[in-house]
Amino acid sequence: MIKTEDIRIRDPFVLAVEEEQAYYLFGTTDENVWEGKGTGFDVYKSRDLINWEGPSAAFRPGKDFWADENFWAPEVHFYKGTYYMLASFKKNGIPRGTQILSSRKPEGPYQPYTEGVITPEGWECLDGTLHIGKEGEPWLIFSREWTQVGDGEIYGVRLSENLKAREGEPVLLFKASQTPWAENVAPDKDTGGIRYVTDGPFLYDEEDGSLKLMWSSFYNGEYAIGSAESSSGDVTGPWIHEESPFYHKDGGHGMIFRAFDGRRILAIHAPNVRHMERPRFICIENGNKASDR
């Protein structure tokens, strides 16, 4: 067993499997996630969010897998009887993008499901997440990187029912600079440089029925999480942003899950410091931070 505070992980994602009364923790787990060769994703399993079994291999690339670096931010969703992993990958000369993998078991092993990335070809994209709309239609929500556009963007695009392909053109939900709190973190920002980050979008239904979207950027020099609400109740928005971040203590890339005792829990990594990242689980009520679990 390993304790939560001893797990080094970025971009934590928790899948709660009711039938097992077990939590599965996925995330960016490679030793050198920025420059090193990608080796895959690990998974941990727990009954109490404190003590964890693992790690075990959730995904390891085959010899013919197209990407070899930046294996980032896996998240797993149960959809129509199958577990689907959405994760970001890159290869030198090929833009980063989100690909979908699948497995019959929550712990894997996961195998490529889509033919390459499901995000638009030629775009630098990351952190794709799956959202099921009001009519049961699947959506892919993802970030378009500041490395390509300067002012990071978040998009939504409809997927086919089997998640194999995009349907229609991506819809721009917002740019980072359009929000009240995200800051330009370019080193030369006083002379015209632009670097507005958009990381880790995650959609969730609030307890009052509203549709919310959390995402990460920077605020006062620290990694932070912002929240927005769709004024129409639909994925396409318009999205109305909170004036200040939801969380701003140098932690981010959040998602929300429901614990088996009924509490809603925000999972993040903190601090946002290389080789020091740890998962944190924060109980929330009515969209507000309450306390660490």
Count of separate DSSP helical elements:
1
Instruction: Quickly name the level 1 CATH class.
Output: Mainly Beta
**How are the strands ordered across the major sheet?**
1-5-4-3-2
Counted up, domains total 1
Q: Summarize the main sheet.
A: 5 strands, antiparallel
Return the average pLDDT rounded to an integer.
94
Kindly, what is the distance between the CA atoms of the first and last residues, rounded to a whole number of angstroms? 19 Å
Cα shape: globular
Total number of strands: 21
* Radius of gyration, whole Å: 18 Å
Uncertain spans: none
Query: What name does CATH use for the topology?
Result: Tachylectin-2, Chain A
- How much of the sequence lies in strands comes to over 45%
**CATH architecture group name:** 5 Propeller
By secondary-structure content and strand pairing, the structural class works out as mainly beta
Q: Which features would summarize this protein structure in a list?
A:
single chain, mainly beta, Tachylectin-2, Chain A, 5-stranded antiparallel β-sheet, 4-stranded antiparallel β-sheet
Description:
The protein has 293 residues and is mainly β. The protein has a single domain, classed as 5 Propeller (Tachylectin-2, Chain A), CATH 2.115.10.20. The chain has 1 helix and 21 strands. The strands form 5 sheets. A 5-stranded antiparallel beta sheet has the order 1-5-4-3-2, with no helix packed on it. Strands 6-7-8-9 form a 4-stranded antiparallel beta sheet, with no helix packed on it. The chain has a 4-stranded antiparallel beta sheet with strand order 10-11-12-13. The protein is globular and about 50 Å long.
